[in-house]
Amino acid sequence: MDIIATLARELNLNPTAVEAAVKLIDEGNTIPFIARYRKETTGGMDDVALRALDDRLAYLRNLEQRKEDVIVLIGAQGKLTPELEAEIREATQLQRVEDLYKPFRKKRMTRAQKAREAGLEPLANMIIMQVTPRGAATPLDVASAYVTPQAVQAGYDTAEKALAGASDIVAETVAEDAENVADLRSFTENTGEIASVAVDADEKTPYEPYYDFAEPARKIPNHRVLAIDRGEREGKLRVHVRVDAEAATARLGARWPRRQGPFAPLLDAAIADGYKRLMAPSLERELRAKLTVRAQTDAIKVFAKNLESLLSARPVRGARVISLDPGYRTGCKVAVLDEYGTLLDHGVVYPTPPRRDTAGTKRELARLVRKHRINTIVIGNGTASRETEAVVSEFIAESAPDLRYTIVNEAGASVYSASELASAEYPDLDVTTRGAMSLGRRLQDPLAELVKIPPQSIGVGQYQHDLDQAELARTLGYVVEDVVNRVGVDVNTASASLLSYVSGITAAVARNIVAYRGEHGAFTDRRQLKDVPKLGPKAYEQCAGFLRINGGDNPLDATSVHPESYEVARKVLEHAGVGAGDLAAGGIPDIERRVGSVASLSGELGCGILTLIDIIAELEKPGRDPRDDAPEVVFSRAALTIDDLEPGMELTGTVRNVVDFGAFVDVGVHQDGLVHISKLSRRFVKHPSDVVAVGDTVKVWVERVDRARGKISLTMVQGK
Fold first, then answer.
1. How far is CA 239 from the centre of its chain?
2. Which is nearest to 102 in space by CA: 189, 186, 182, 183?
3. Where do the structural domains in the chain lie, given as residue ranges?
4. 3-104 CATH fold
5. Contact in structure between 366 and 334 (CB atoms under 8 Å)
6. pLDDT tens digits for 174-225?
7. Residues 573-594 pLDDT 10s
8. What is the third-level CATH fold of 642-715?
9. CA–CA separation, 143 vs 26, rounded Å?
């Protein structure tokens, strides 16, 4: 297989660009580095295209290696024919290679293998080929010649048993034929149904919709697949694939020569046995596994997209925060942070049952607001959030009308606060105070805080714990890496957690950067990174452009311009009639007008057009944060309750999660409302993520309120 040509065709990319990208990947360059600083070489592939190419490249290389392994294994058995080798080499999927290898795979002793060792394979071939020797009136007459001492010793001591053994060989031959398997696999996928029944029909469980359920496998949505899988794992459902066995057997039989001789009934029976006993169970497992992989892959993609939106949320700069982590018996933990996230104060208040000290809580909030010039209150959305919010809302209405508050998702906060990382960062603080701090910092800079938490613990997806955890962690890790490098990192303020996601920097090197910073003071020049232990030339090349130094010796160090392009950047500035010092004043807004034709300048400077465009954009707005384009955080000054909601009410909310069947929106009543996929738009919506993303601010209308169950149905289409 020509892997480069295959990748170019499958991904609809230029073969030259694909070859260049593969070479860059093989040389150890990271995806963010290639996407940002090697655009000329790859034709401008972004990180999404490069990730897809990298994944497919790994698959195709694995496929080619498996082909070679299978050819060697079959060849070692002396059974490799030129035709079979050609079929293996022409395979485009691992499944096809495994189908071709299946008849030659070493396996435990089967009924067919036992019959072969007893010398019954020639009899099986007669059944398959419908050949009756002259003078033989019946199959039993033919079979009697195969009741040899060898067969008798193996248990085939009668003609009937010899025919049965030969039929087992036929059944296995039918079931292991690669073309038969491929055809029946397609038939099963296209006509089969996923059916489930309750283990105990009287038991009340979340899986009641699947107690007597069937849906075509080709149509079943991914979230139903995951729900059924979970119900089966928890012992609440019995699940199977429902296929028309008669139609499947007839389809299989049609692949064989017309049967009219004395062996015809035996061949028909062997084909039916091969399907029922050997093929159907295997194909059912395959289909179930395929649906699960498809569903998990889709769920991971949704999770990744949600995480990207969450990490790309706009920071709330200048927020001096009182962060509240609500609770009942142990009270509500308080952390007070300045606009840089530094802890100023901490404590506990008791606005919730059993104490209900609302007066004391309001007095303490008033004291902290005055003392630390607080302008924002953050409340975690977990246990006791609703009661805490009500007290905060009253306090603002009564005493601090200029104050604002918002609810922050707590997912993963407890994971961070109890981690070794949190203990190392704040050894003198208890777990609860660390958790409250984390909530406040999530508002101030979501990216910088959330990178401290394993991405799969952040909780923006569906069926999180049912997914392939290794693949989930790998994919989400890539998302964090892409967002961190897209935004850029201040090398003098970033935590080791944040630095470890920068292109080319390992966790050990990240810790070394922080240690170097602590020993030598703030970095003033990017070249100083070369002095960090274990940060070699390759790592420097990969990371330098993503690490920013604000207020350093070289104004270009505060931009995303890579040091390898500094000379070009200086010439661009000269061409524009300005100096590097002008960057410190906020950039050069009219630089595009000043430099004139980019194509002409590109030729003059010997710099690629795509790279030059990026340099000019960075000189226009140095160190621009792409998160500034994200929606602003929605703040509240008065709390609502679910009792305040009525059908038709218009509200503004924040999208908290996006799943296959809709989006969950926080409208300020503690319980998120669901906008079903059918209510997201007047147009057909293939997936909710095509319309909304985590963090979006949306206008919704209340459709239904189930106060008893605490469920809110919303719509984004007025009157629908």
1. 26
2. 182
3. 3-104, 321-444, 642-715
4. Arc Repressor Mutant, subunit A (1.10.10)
5. no
6. 999 999 999 999 999 999 999 999 999 999 999 999 999 999 999 999 999 9
7. 999 998 888 887 788 999 989 9
8. OB fold (Dihydrolipoamide Acetyltransferase, E2P) (2.40.50)
9. 61
